[in-house]
Amino acid sequence: MLTVRNGVRVEVWRGDITQLDVSAIVNAANVSLRGSGGVDAAVHRAAGGELLSACLQLNGCAAGEVCVTPGFALPARWVFHAVGPRWKGGEDNEAQLLASCYHKSLQLAADKQVASIAFAAISCGANHFPPLAAANIAWHVVETYLAAPPPALRKIVFVAFDEEVHRAWQKVLVGIS
């Protein structure tokens, strides 16, 4: 699924985010940044032990925040570690925290002058955020950002790790194409 906004390609891809040849990947991290499971563990495995060392120096990261490290052995130059919220039924500021992850990742992308960025489905795994709600929140943030994208940015990829997340992203992008 593909759309183009102000010269930036936006696509949905199903697979392993660690294999994408992009400038930066947005890791669905936890507060410890230690790669304990899911996408976070896969990113740590693929990047190598240097990533854990770099993350330990950061001393963790709060929900709604994003920390940055080099990509080390990954094809991506940068890893943006976005700590998404745990879903608690929508009554605990989860939507705002998730939106903050996307917003701060896009700010970092502009600061680092990345040409391409791939987002994991933040909070949709172990944190149980409903995939369709998460995709709508993410798209709202990205669409606002794409009204005046930075000159370097040419591609945004939303990476789905399973069929449910993939369907949710396709549904959101079909609605805006």
UniProtKB/TrEMBL annotation:
Pfam name, any one: Macro
Annotated signal peptide: none
Record InterPro entries: Macro_dom, Macro_dom-like
Residue span, Macro domain: 1-177
PANTHER family linked to this entry: GANGLIOSIDE INDUCED DIFFERENTIATION ASSOCIATED PROTEIN 2-RELATED, MACRO DOMAIN-CONTAINING PROTEIN
Full protein name: Macro domain-containing protein
Organism, as annotated: Vogesella indigofera
